[in-house]
Amino acid sequence: MPPTRSITVRQATSDDAGPLITVLVEAFLDGPVADWLVPDLADRRTVYFRYFKLVFNHGLQHGRVDTTDDQSAVAIWYTRDQVPLVESTGHYYEVERATGRYAPRFLLLDAIFETHHPHAPHDYLAYVAVDPRHQGRGVGTALLTNAHQTLDAANRAAYLEASNTRNRDLYQRLGYRQGAPIHLPTEGPLIWRMWRGQPTDGTPAPFPTDLLPHRSPL
Questions:
Q1: Residue 65 and residue 137: Cα distance in Å, rounded?
Q2: CATH among 3.40.630.30, 3.20.170.30, 3.40.50.2300, 3.40.50.150 for 9-196
Q3: Can you tell me the distance from the alpha carbon of 203 to that of 197, in angstroms, rounded to the nearest whole number?
Q4: What are the pLDDT digits (tens) for 57-88?
Q5: Phi/psi class of residue 187: alpha, beta or left (left: φ > 0; alpha: ψ in -120 to 50)?
Q6: pTM value?
């Protein structure tokens, strides 16, 4: 279904916390990664609310959080130029408090993502979520297109991880190239690494081959 009106993108603030944390929870509640992180459905919503509250506030403090005028979507970006932001020990304790007995999986996922992160300077799209009630209306595309225009003006690349083939195909239509996938351990799902470099000959830039050495995750 096409959007019924124009979509205005703006930078989020702490006043948007309640609605946007809910959007993150609802958008990520179902799917192969959610099943892997929190297999118990009875626990998942509670754990996700605590976790995405931490994620949202972290994005406000250390990155950039974009949203739409109706708060139906949210994207959390981080600038990655050389070495990643090294978190304090307190941050890992916060993740453990938020996720409880599921903390090992959450911390392992962060560590795996960090290990496979490209070294080339880029902006990292850590999370993008659209309220399920607004999906299929071009809201997510509008949110990302706005960010891509800013990146293109600054000659910046973008990187993200896609957790399903539907999202992977959408990112490819938006100019991303797929890298080697990540297979999460203990029968976990596939994750597709996606890179949107600046084209030099009219075609999308190839996925970078250099990787960061293993470092502490976000």
A1: 21
A2: 3.40.630.30
A3: 10
A4: 999 999 999 999 999 999 999 999 865 555 66
A5: left
A6: 0.89
